Each structure stands twice: as structure tokens, then as C-alpha cells.
Amino acid sequence: MELKHIGNSIDRIDSLAKVTGKAMYPQDYYVDNMLYGKTLRSIYPFAKINIDTREAQNLPGVIRIFTHNDVPNNAHGVLHKDQLVFCKDIVRRIGDPIAFVVAETEKICEEAIEKIKVQYEIMKPVLDPIEAMKEDSIKIHGDSNIVYHFKLRKGDALRALEESYFVATNTYKTHSIDHAFLQPEAGIGYLDENGNIAVIVATQYPHYDREEIAYCLNLPIENIRIINSNVGGAFGGREDITLQVHLALAAKTLNRVIKCVYSREESFLAHSKRHAMIMNYSTGVDKEGYLTAVKAEIIGDTGAYASWADNVLRKAGVHATGPYIVPNVMVDSYAVYTNNPYAGAMRGFGATQVAVAYEQQMDILARELKMSPVEIRLKNILKVGSITSTGQLLNNSVPLENCLRSVTE
Amino acid sequence: MKVYKSNSVEETLEILKSAPKSKIISGGTDLIIELRNHNSDVDYLVDISSIEELKKIEKVNDEYIIGSAVPFSDILNFKFPDNLKGFVNALNQIGSPQIRNRGTIGGNLANASTSADSAPVLLALDAKVGISTGDFEKEVSMTDFYDFIGEGLYHGIITYIKFKEIPLNSYLSFEKLGYRKSLAISKLSISTNITLNENFEIEKIFVASGAIGKYPMREYEVESKIISQPLNENIIQLSIETMKEIISERLKGRSSLNYKLSAIEYVLRSCLEESIQYFKRC
Amino acid sequence: MINLKINVNNTDYEIEIDEEKRLIDLLRDELRLTGVKEGCSEGECGACSVILDGKLVNSCLIMAFQVNDSKVVTIEGLSEGDNINYIQKAFIEAGAVQCGYCTPGMILAAKAILDKNPNPSREEIRMGISGNLCRCTGYEKIVEAIELAGGYLNGTKTYRE
């Protein structure tokens, strides 16, 4: 049988549009008489605020300045509705949106932003997730900074560590990373011919964006359209709302076409980051080099907002022992609020950070046992028939050994 | 803001004199970013990128004369002898192809950045910089250049840069450390220009650094310690030790100190070893 | 406002434009050549690359008034309708296009490389695209595409059926 697609390289359906420059991203839409929008953002990580927009509002060319007063349900977030469309009393991170200026030109928007008076009563920010976990720490939201705690237990890890021939105990830290997708956020908001709110945006989740806008503006979801343009890279960074509600609100209120384009700098401020993690690992091994136990505590700094923190830290916990057979496992992973830039989805979703820890642990154990790094891995890797740390029986297709052998040949 | 595309040096100088908040633009690869960040108080931009007399590159007798508005890529299209490889290397590592197609050698000096990649090689070549203002024309040695212009060159323009070819028993090298290969601002750079006598002793030496002081500068202390010495491993060691002492003093209390102390080992060694390789080939 | 004469993609224009506008603003906002992409506004990403008087440049780092009497080629100038040029073909065929935002600048960087040398080494290609960031591909397929385009140009490769 001849297969049409499998085994063949197929041109991307949009590649012709992309090589000719015809592919449209939100910033590429131009409409006659459109207005421009620009966001005023917090310059402090933690502060009480008071906003006065009167002078800015009187600037010629300014159409409207939107603040928390204009949003019926001022809350959004993919898992926890802990983000505000516009901050009201408190800003929790640098870059928190405070107001959205709509004006005739981008330049007027910038001038108006300068004229909005924000009084900041600066509070001491919580920047260290370990500090943030303490009971007496200042709370960023609610009564605990711990957003999420995932526990994984298999066998008796504490006893197995005690009985191990050797235990490597180390702390690993990974830092926050920006996706730096090449196309900065941009969007167009307008009312379509049926009076529905339409937002052209580059997004990973048009359906979530729609729900969030409907909730924030207190409108039936049928009245919201999200038109996903070409997306200039995302890598997880476009899973949360940035300018979607701002544009929808402005379009609905003004019945005009509003365009908003972030600069690279604003893009960095606006979207999530990869979770920085602190990983405390104890990995035990027997004389022959077989793993006996892993005890891991993983602390993920989710910054000012949770975004996908639960899923990311769950995934970090699930993958904490890597592709290795470990009979005794005790993992605790935590997502913790701080006043740092907020963290969310980024390629690997928490599985990436823990590899830094468990792989270095393997190298350290190999050195201690005077064994090659490949040999210790071959002894411990998951194979068909192995049971993972979360109890899954792998009954087919685990080609790890082939992979390791072929790269070392 | 007013803008003007100037046709001559004379005309440019008149504008600079009459408009106090005017500024020269040529390649614009730094200035436009500054303007957009509102870091520059400018109400009149004068473009010199089309002034023919500033766009020439030529060799007259034993001297290379490069107009200040010549983009790096045009300089790189000019053929330089093998022993000026450091000059070519320095220019090749500036920015990216796009930046080298616009950025000019005059602009690289005029904004007085300590990381300017062309500065250490020009210092090591003992280059001269032609400067014109409405009131005078002057040729300033690279070693005096930064003191001369202070924080930046106002109300005057650089018209040319010139340096002499170096004899066959001389070699110019350049090495820089940046965080990546392209579009990397120098964290530390060194250029050496060494002349050996027939006994393979250092007859003449210029050592210049970038990014370890307020401006790129000559490192006279290293020069005086190794002059008349044979160019060998001991001298490499001595040069590195001396530079480390200089850097420790100059960057005292800076967070970058330790980083630069270990960086200098590689950067300076690489310059001197490349020179040794050249002399071995000769 | 100032008046400019400029030739873009073989068409002459006379344009009135604000003194503070850059070349990228002229191309995108005035001429609606939106294949010119803005990624960083400071010459780091190369998405706004165009060919100005035969040279690859960042259109975000040139003031509009500086290009009076110049000739500019943007990505829109490489094709006519669906009739695309050899570099564009190679990019499609080699799978060098993903999100597409770097693609126009990358193709113009490729043109600058191949206009100089139809047979560039991989190292020369890497150097030639070193002012263009891509966050999707890891560059490998872009380098392959430029090699393939070089093959079309020097006759060692023929277009796919």
C-alpha cells in the first residue's frame, strides 16, 4: 500500500503565505480611522496604588482611559482567577496592568500614560520562594503563598536512603526564562456586523480567551469572537491573557477599531516566564549501581500569579525521577507565590527543570561508584515491563536503551 | 524634531553651530535606539551618511585613510595585509551583517563607548583621528582622543581615521570576549601590535584594552614590562599577571571583577599566541 | 513632515512622512508592506531586514529621511503572485518555515549571502544569518534551505516536481 502522507515530507499549509510575507499577524492589520491602545504598567513589584487619570483624560486626542472601574468582573487566570484585568488597590509585580489608554495615535497614548498619576505606597516585596513559604511571610494573595502542593509516595524512601550504599544529597537551582517568541503581542478589537466583540489576536487558546473575555465583561460567550491570526511563536507564553480583555472592553465601550502592539520590552513585562525552581535531591544507590530511592523537594517560584502553576509543578513532581527505575520515591513539589514576574507554561511544562537535577545526580553517583555515566544509566533506565515512579506499567515501546546504546556506539 | 540630509562637511558644521541641540547621525545603529528610549535630547538630526568626502577609503603611500562615514562592511571589502589581521577581526566581530552594513567607524569612536570594538585596534595602531568643528580642524592621536572629546563629540565631527601600515616584522591581533558570537557587546577586548627584532625580541609594542575602564585605553604598564624581552611563554605569563593587577585596581569593588580577571587570561593569551604563530610563519 | 523619493520593489514613490519615522514605519505604516516584521526595534532580531541599495540592513535602525533617493527591496519584491523565487522555494521545501515571523528577514539575509556567493559554506551561511534570530527552528533547516537555494542557483539542484 502506498501512503500519501506518512513517510513523506509535506509542505506546511501556510508556508507559501509566510515566505512571501503575506501571512498576517495582528500587528499587520491596518484599518482606516482605527484607534490605538497602550497599557500603563506597574513599575514596582509590590505596592498599594492610587490612580488619578483626570489630567491624562483631558489630553487632546485621548478617547478614553480604562481602569478597574470599567471591568464588571475584574479577574482572570487559566486555573485560578488571581489576575486582575486592571489592578485596583495593589500591584503584585513589575508590569502589572493598571490602565489602558485609547487615543488617536500611539504617540498620544504614550503622552497620556506619562500624565496618569499613580501614587505608589511601596511595600517590601517577597522575592525568595523559600521565605514566601514560611507561615509568617507576607502573603501575596489570601492566607498562604503556597498555591499548590503535589505529593508522590512509593515504597519507603526514607528507610531505603538510610540503607543505601551511597546517597548523593544536593540542591539544584534553575532560573526564570522568557520564551522570547519573535512576534511581540498585538491585537485588534472591534465590533463585527452583528454587534459581537471580535478580537484578532495571536493566541494558543482562542477558546479560553473567549471564556475569559465573556466572564470579565459579564457577557454571554456567544457575543465574543476570537480570531486567531498567524502566531509568531508562543512556546507557552501565549497561554495566558495579555491584551485580549483590554481590547474587547475598549471595542465594546467605544464601538471603534482599536489596535494595540506591544514593544519587545512590554512583551517581556506582559507574559509569563518559565518557573525558576529550587530542587533538593537525595538519591540513593546500592553497591552495584542500582538506584534505591529518591527523595526530592521541588519549589517552583510562580511569581505574582499562578497561571499554570499546579500543572507545571505536578509535572515536575511526576518527572522528578526521570527515565529511571526507582523502587522508593518521596517527592513533594510546591508552587509558591512571590512578587517576581509570574511563571506559567513554557516548553516542557516543568519536566525540563527537574532533568537538571536528576541527571546531575546520576553523574555524581557514577563518579562515586567509579562507573561510567552511561553504565549507571543503562542499569537504571526504564524498559518494557518497568513500573514508573507513579506506578505505571510500561508494557510497550520504551526505546531508551536503543537510544543510549546508539549514541554511545 | 528637524531632520536634514547633509551634502558636505562645511554645511554640517554650520548646522551644528547654529542648532545647539543638533546631533549627527550616520549609521544610526546606536543613536536611533537612544532617541526612541528618549535618552537623547535632540531637536535636529543631521545625516552625514551621504557626504562623499566622508565615504572614501584609500591607501596613500604607507597610510590607510578611512572616511568617518564608511560602514564597517565597506572597510572589510578593502584588502588589508595579513599582519593587520587584528583590524579585520575586530571589524568582523562588530554586531551582525546588518549592523556592519550601516554602522560606521566614525560613529564607533564618536559615541565614546568603552566596548567599541574598533577602538583597541586603532589604539594599538597608534591611529590618528581627524576632527573638524566650525572653529578648527585638528588631527588627534587615538591615545588622546577620549580625553579630547570627553563624554562625546559635540559641535564637531570626525572626518577621517588614519593609520600607517606596519612592517612585516610586526603583527596586529585582536580578541574579544562577548556572551555570544554575533551581536555581542564586548565584555573585555584586547589588541596587541608587536614588532620583533632579528633576535625575536620585542622591539616595539602596543597593548590596548576595551571594556575595562571608562574608555578603551593603552596599557602602558604591560608594554613597559615586556619591551625588549623575547616573546615567549614567560612573557605571556608576565603580561597576564600585570593585566590582572591593573584590572584588580581599576575594577575594585565591581561585581564583574572576578569574571574579567579570568577572561583576561584567555583574551590576552590568545592575542599573544596568535602573534607568535605569525612570527613563526615568517 | 518631509517629502521623500524612494524606490521600493521597483516602484517609485513620493511620500510625505513624519521626521521621527524610521524606514520600517515608512514601509509598514505608509506602504503597508507588512512582510517587514518588527521584533525588537533595536537591531537584535533581524526580522525587519530589507535590502537597501544592495545591502542587507535593519529597517528599524534607519531613519526614513536618510533613505531619500534610495532603492529598497522587501520580501514582497521577491515574488509576483504565487510565482516565488528560488530562495522562497527552498525555504518551503527544506521545512525552514515555522511560525514565519523571522522568515521574510531570513530570506532576505539568504539573498544577501547568495547574491555574493552562490556556493557558500555552512560557516558562511551561519555568519550571513547571524543577525537574524529564529526561535522555532534551531536554524538547522534554515541553513539547509540556503544550501538548497545555492544548489538551485549554481545548477547542482533542480526544483522539486
TrEMBL record, chain A:
Which Gene Ontology terms cover its molecular function? iron ion binding; oxidoreductase activity
Q: By its UniProt entry, which Gene3D superfamilies does this protein fall under?
A: Aldehyde oxidase/xanthine dehydrogenase, a/b hammerhead, Aldehyde oxidase/xanthine dehydrogenase, molybdopterin binding domain
Q: Which InterPro entries match?
A: Ald_Oxase/Xan_DH_a/b, Ald_Oxase/Xan_DH_a/b_sf, Ald_Oxase/xanthine_DH-like, AldOxase/xan_DH_MoCoBD1, AldOxase/xan_DH_Mopterin-bd_sf
Q: What residue intervals traverse the membrane? A: none
**Pfam families reported in the protein's UniProt record:** Ald_Xan_dh_C, MoCoBD_1
Outline the extent of the Aldehyde oxidase/xanthine dehydrogenase a/b hammerhead domain: 20-124
Taxonomically, which superkingdom?
Bacteria
Quote the protein name from its UniProt record.
Aldehyde oxidase
**Native species of this protein?**
Soehngenia longivitae
From TrEMBL, chain B:
Q: What PROSITE patterns would the database entry show?
A: FAD_PCMH
Q: Which terms are listed as keywords in the entry?
A: FAD, Flavoprotein, Oxidoreductase
> What are this entry's molecular-function GO terms?
FAD binding; oxidoreductase activity
Q: Does the keyword Cell membrane apply?
A: no
Question: Domain FAD-binding PCMH-type spans what residues?
Answer: 1-168
Under PANTHER family, the record lists: XANTHINE DEHYDROGENASE SUBUNIT C-RELATED
Q: What is this protein called?
A: Xanthine dehydrogenase family protein subunit M
What species was this sequence derived from? Soehngenia longivitae
UniProtKB/TrEMBL annotation, chain C:
Top-rank lineage group of the source organism: Bacteria
Q: Tell me what organism the protein belongs to.
A: Soehngenia longivitae
- Ion transport keyword on record: no
The protein's matches in Pfam families, at most eight in alphabetical order, are given as: Fer2 (PF00111), Fer2_2 (PF01799)
Q: What is this protein called?
A: (2Fe-2S)-binding protein
MF terms in GO? 2 iron, 2 sulfur cluster binding; metal ion binding; oxidoreductase activity
Domain (2Fe-2S ferredoxin-type) spans 2-78
Listed A to Z, the keywords are: 2Fe-2S, Iron, Iron-sulfur, Metal-binding, Oxidoreductase
